[in-house]
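cron nightly-structures :: item 1 of 1
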Amino acid sequence: MAAANLFILISHERSGSHLVGEYLRSLADFRVFDEVCNPDAIKPKQHTESFFRFKYDYIVKRPQLLLEPTRQEYTGFVQAYFSHLLTLGAPSNVAVDIKYGHIQNFEGWWWPMLERPSLLNICETSGIGILHLFRENVVEATVSSMIADKRYVWHSWQIKPETPVDQKFELPVREIVRKAKVLEREIYWVKEWVLRNNTLEITYERVSAELGRGGALDSALTKFLGRAPKAPFKPRLQKLARPLRESVENFGELKAACEAAGLGHLVP
């Protein structure tokens, strides 16, 4: 497998992965496959890059993946899937968008949940580079996700003329704190897991402030990926998030709950 041309973009929700994907597409000879393990975004019946489409076709040809589910058999399946994506993207380099919540799809029949995932072991042995993207402010990430679900708007191109842009939302503060603490732990574990990989770590905060402006972040990305921009970066995506005080109706309640949970520094 020509693993040198394959990269995995690992991130969580509301971390800026689609904006990073847009930037990667602006590089010379680069192909991006979005959320391949999300059947709502990448329909298996319609898209051959879908993880679930490939798995279905693979099992039809090699039912031993289910009938004889050995670690070796499943590792071969994952490697075959990545080779499939490289073929689809040829001759370009390929980046594959995989969310935290989708990593378990690359396990076989057994995974102690706090052990390093098989996906990262395979990436290490195959020389696949990892872009680890995360949002340092886990409270903002959690609130952004909740508001997107309420508005049913996840990206700027989905906004309609009648969509109110200054709407405030009353949110369940205990649930925000719980989810923010969970995300904080998830980020910690992924950072630990990728230490042995060829990894470039980037944050939503840096992406929002620096991406596509020709500075240190762009230099780090192009060096890591081995590709230079083919044209000036003009993203379609626009930032939707507003400051917490402007978007959360019960901001005072949120701030108090975060301070009590040790997250007060994330709620300015």
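cron nightly-structures :: done
Residues 173-193 form the longest helix (21 residues).
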